[in-house]
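note to self — DONT lose this again. spent like an hour looking for the file last time. sequence + predicted structure for the chain T wanted, 224 res
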Amino acid sequence: MLNIMNFKLNKAVFVSEGKSRFICNILYGEEILECYVPITCKLSSLLSLEGKEILIRETTKAAKRTKFTLFAVQNKNDYLIVDTGFANRIVNAILAKTENNNLFYPEQIVENYKCDFYSATSKTLVEVKSVITTEQEVLLPNMKTQRAIIQLHNICSLLSKGYRAEYFIVAFAPQLEKVKVASKEKVGFLLKEFLNLGGEISCIRITLDESYNINCDKLDYIFV
């Protein structure tokens, strides 16, 4: 269990998606409000939302036009986190618990490559990828992304120069049991090269229970 919730969560009801994929309409109390959606794709392409109970938090960035940010959606007896940026906070907590005296700093530049975390002590860079699904198994990559391909090329280049690297796949996926990586896809091919060069891959399943406790379980992955 991770104790990293330093903000208050409020219950609301999802009404509809907005014209922008970053905005949705919610019922909070007796008001219909716009709410910020911290994800780069349409939520409706990932899960059913209309009329569902949701958890929202106050938006921290003053520049945002909305008071609240969508954090999680009700999923049977627990919640499915949809704030993909929260994956970095989770990994930061994991690194702090497991990496002994290696201090990791966020958003560091290593030889012109910007990584999510970096420890100069051990010359280790960390990249974090988030996945949202309600399925029991997921095939990665689950969407086309040129950015991930470019990142893996850069990381493999750094590994060949003597750096260490960890690649975290953070799955906001309460039912997930199997993680598969498509070997024939470019991302899968590069992840195999990443492993061959000494990189480490960790798959983490994240759940949020009714008491708002965050539970973290390690999952195995296979190449198919």
